């Protein structure tokens, strides 16, 4: 008596798993990102300013020195996470959120020209 599956059973199982995985993957890829659709939804507390990154965690926001939080996140215009040290010295137009308890920069989004043209409430 054989208790293990035959080779053909393994092949059928692998094919079924591949179909299920592919079927779950395709709808996720078909959804456009917010950046591709036009503008992103920013938090209501987000402000607009000019960000110049110095030696991390020190930055200048609207010409004033400021620090970033340990969990600081900087997103590109297409929604990818950027490493701040790669943009040292560049002047970036961003929407940003200040962390309330420390008054440090917590999150910033580099704006597309379309997003920059929109006024913040």
What does this structure look like?
This protein has 121 residues and is α+β, with helices and mostly antiparallel strands. The chain is 27% helix and 34% strand. It contains three helices and six strands, in the order ααββββββα. The protein has helices at 7-30, 34-37, 113-117; strands at residues 47-53, 58-61, 64-75, 81-82, 91-99, 104-110. It has a five-stranded mixed beta barrel with strand order 1-2-3-6-5. A hairpin with a 2-residue loop joins β2 and β3 (64-75). The radius of gyration is 23 Å and the shape is elongated. The mean pLDDT is 82.
Quick overview:
With 121 residues, the protein is an alpha+beta fold.
Task: Give keywords.
single chain, 121 residues, alpha+beta, OB fold (Dihydrolipoamide Acetyltransferase, E2P), 3 helices, 27% helix
Radius of gyration: 23 Å
Number of E strands: 6
| CATH classification, class level of the largest domain | Mainly Beta
CATH topology of the largest domain: OB fold (Dihydrolipoamide Acetyltransferase, E2P)
Number of domains: 2
Helix content: 25-40%
Overall morphology: elongated
Which whole number gives the mean pLDDT?
82
Largest sheet: 5 strands, mixed, barrel
Strand order of the largest sheet: 1-2-3-6-5
Task: Name the CATH architecture of the largest domain.
Answer: Beta Barrel
Tell me the number of helical segments per DSSP (H or I, 4 or more residues long): 3
Oligomer: single chain
Order of helices and strands: HHEEEEEEH
End-to-end distance: 74 Å
Low-confidence stretches: none
Strand content: 25-35%
